[in-house]
Protein: Cytidylate kinase
Amino acid sequence: KNGLQVAIDGPASAGKSTVAKLVAKQFNYIYCDTGAMYRAVTLKAIQQGISLDNEPEIAKIVKESKITFTPDETGQKVFIDHHDVSEAIRSEEVTNSVSAVAAIAAVRKQLSAQQQAIAKDGGIVMDGRDIGTAVLPNAEVKIFLVASVEERAKRRYKENIQKGINTPLDELQLEIEARDYKDSHRKISPLTKATDATEIDTTALSIDQVVSEIAKVINSKL
Ligand code: C5P
Structure:
């Protein structure tokens, strides 16, 4: 193995991908955003006009598509069938539909297997909802990032403004709560903190502070 497996889980907009990218950079590890994989499948289903409760058709999409990542200055680009969907998968429509797709057993089974293959040699920071509990139960480092829902809605609001999206703050908070509820209450590998994960509350911390907390945990295992 060339380095550890670092699993970073937590609810929506807790800052997982931002800090995961920086941690990966610091340790020269690969970064893998598993949420992007669920989002890419959701985008393709929407584009093909497939209803989100049509489980067999959505499972077929996963089977027949190839999701790949390439690193870039900002972290990574996401491709499905060689189309760059890095921006399209962040739309409000995909964000508010993805939990339904992520609850489908056949989708989780296939994407988890792909994630395990990506992580098998270690030297990886993988973020998601079930990485420490289901995808990489033996990861040497498990982090569970949380933040108050008000703070998470504020962060999402700021990001949106930069992208020219103007959803009101209270609406964003309701969307985040709804997504967390669905992700935490689905039958298969719901969002939950692994018993051996280190929980970090990022509400009052800067990005750098969170990165340095995680780096401490990693260094303690090296
Ligand atoms: O991390 P992000 O917010 O991009 O994830 C989008 C959605 O993908 C989550 O709300 C969840 O429904 C799903 N997901 C998942 N398991 C993961 C990563 C993401 O179910 N490991």
